[in-house]
Amino acid sequence: MSPEVSAETLNKVLWKIPNVLCLVGSRSGDEWNGMTQSWVTQVAMEPVLVAAAIDVKAVTNRLIRESGAFTINLWDREDTRPFVKFSKPAVKDGMSLNGRPIREGRTGAPIFTEAVAYLECTVWQRVECGTHDLFIGEVVDAGFTGDDDPIVARMEDTRMKYGGVKRGGH
Ligand SMILES: Cc1cc2nc3c(=O)[nH]c(=O)nc-3n(C[C@H](O)[C@H](O)[C@H](O)COP(=O)(O)O)c2cc1C
What we know:
This protein is mainly β. The protein has one domain: Electron Transport, Fmn-binding Protein, Chain A (Pnp Oxidase, Chain A, Roll). It is built from 3 helices and 10 strands. The chain has helices at about 5-15, 60-65, 80-85; strands spanning about 20-30, 30-35, 40-45, 50-55, 70-75, 95, 100-105, 110, 115-130, 130-145. A 7-stranded antiparallel beta sheet has the order 2-1-5-9-10-4-3. A hairpin with a 2-residue loop joins strand 6 and strand 7. The longest helix has 9 residues, at about 60-65. It is globular. Flavin mononucleotide binds near residues 36, 37, 55 and 58.
């Protein structure tokens, strides 16, 4: 980063980038997880590729590396409560994570049955990006729970922030 740009300015600019707020589902063997995720975007049309940048220290990162699969679960804009709970490793009880029901997707990764829409992906490529790995996923399944035009949760619906300049612990 240029020394002429202060961390404060850079943070403020980076936080202006609009982002979705969703849950990433992952699983390796008996270990299942869901995590709050904001850095998600489509990156190609043929094949259809979707990328998620995931902290190298996150449990989710390890589970995706081990299994080669993940799910993106888009959530109802009116229900942003799960995002607080899913910002640390989730507790599995039967077929639920932090009390939110899940089902097994085609790849074996969890799909939240309350998600208003979901994408299931197999890892096409993992790109090392310093603090995060960019998992580029090829979409193998997608769908809606109900209405096919739901309004999904976004970062600006909450007072949460993610990203910007690295502080003590990212
Ligand atoms: C609003 C919000 C957005 C987040 N977005 C991301 C993200 O895009 N990528 C990421 O690696 N962690 C993100 N996190 C942090 C993870 O949810 C958190 O570090 C989680 O504990 C790591 O997951 P784990 O359970 O797999 O260890 C976000 C957290 C919050 C509260």
